[in-house]
Amino acid sequence: MTSTEPRPDLALAILDAPETVASRRGLRDQVAALQERLRLALEADWAPEVLAAAAVVPVAERPRLLDLGELERVRDDLVASLDAVREAVLVRRERHAANRALLERMFEDPDAHRGVRLTTDDLGLPGCCRWQVSPVLGVVGRLAGWWRVKVSSGCP
Amino acid sequence: MPDVAAGSVDPVLIEEFGPLELWTATVTPVRGARRAGRERLGRLSGSFRAAERIRERGGRLLDVAYPTFERQTGLDPTVPPTALERDAREVVVTGALMSTHPVDDVRLAVLAEVGVPLTALDAAATSGPWRLTTTHGEPYRDGTPTTPGDLVVMDAHGPVAPVMGDPPGRLAAGPRSRAVVLYAVRVPGMASWEVSEAVWRAANYLAET
Which of A80, A81, B26, B103 would you call most buried, defined as having the most Cβ atoms within 10 angstroms of its Cβ? Predict the structure, then answer.
């Protein structure tokens, strides 16, 4: 039997060529390395929207022995996932920065930001604190135009 | 005390993936397993930091070696392949590991404790020896089709479960199973002892030894 003839005992003849075994293992190593980078990226900036950006259309419905072309697709999808995660992280950080600037403006001029509310999640901070521009003394403050930023201490 | 046994692995898979192993144990759950499972999950709920675990492991509860293997076999690891893990992620919302029935309680406890995914088959529906291999397109015992090259756990008569994911409904162990075949797959990146220990621990939980 020459090296390129399919072995009858294998499930997929396409996987049989010995020279592609090393290629497939090389691709699996690349996939493992990319998967670790993706995990680190998700760990560093964890959020449901970032995780959602990492999702791909799976190559297979059930786990299977992938051929060279399928492994290349997995690798390329992973690279695209990493890009999408980085983009989602950037968007998230920009949103947090904008919200922090808004919080500063809320403190400087509460009257111009009536009713605006921010949470620690909006600012990319841990915990569950809230900042809301509300009237002093309820209706009296609302009628008199007395507004302030009220800080809630967090979770009950 | 239940014995943990090594199943065989198709040499082609070892050539392709490296160190793959299959660890199995057949166990008869004792009557007190339900109450013990509930108590175990209750204790774990108080100490298990699911949110941290999920963050460290890229959205998963199990060891990071498994999502890598899922990726290498064509799955999308952002979606857990088992209903047990998908439901367990809800722990972040509910704050507790929910008890269902003894077999799944044990699988969940081991998933939370050591990060190894266990599968449980109804022992009445399968008989060993079990091995890790690829299909040639033959269906599961209940008629669920496979495609050539699917990675499966096979018993003496044919495929019984995918290597990652839930077995077909009629083969899976449930609340009424009188005896259960537990197994876990060691994938590259996992230590062999960790996986065999996980199966041993689950078997002993169920047998209350």
Answer: B103
| CA angle at B46 for the pair B42 and B49, rounded to the nearest 5° | 120
Position B92 pLDDT exceeds 80: no
pTM of the model: 0.83
B26 SS3 class: strand
Assembly ipTM: 0.85
pLDDT of res. A16? 55
Name which of A25, A27, A35, A77 to mutate to probe chain B: the one with the most chain B Cβ atoms within 10 A of its Cβ: A35
Cβ–Cβ below 8 Å for B149 and A25: no
Taken as a whole, chain A contains a residue count of: 156
Structure tokens at B152: 């499966």
- B74–A59 CB contact, under 8 Å: yes
For residue A41, what is the nearest residue in chain B, using CA coordinates?
Answer: B58
Residue ranges of the domains in chain A? Answer: 13-91, 109-152
- Which helix (H) or strand (E) segment is B111 a member of? helix B102-114
- State the amino acid at position B94 in one-letter form: T
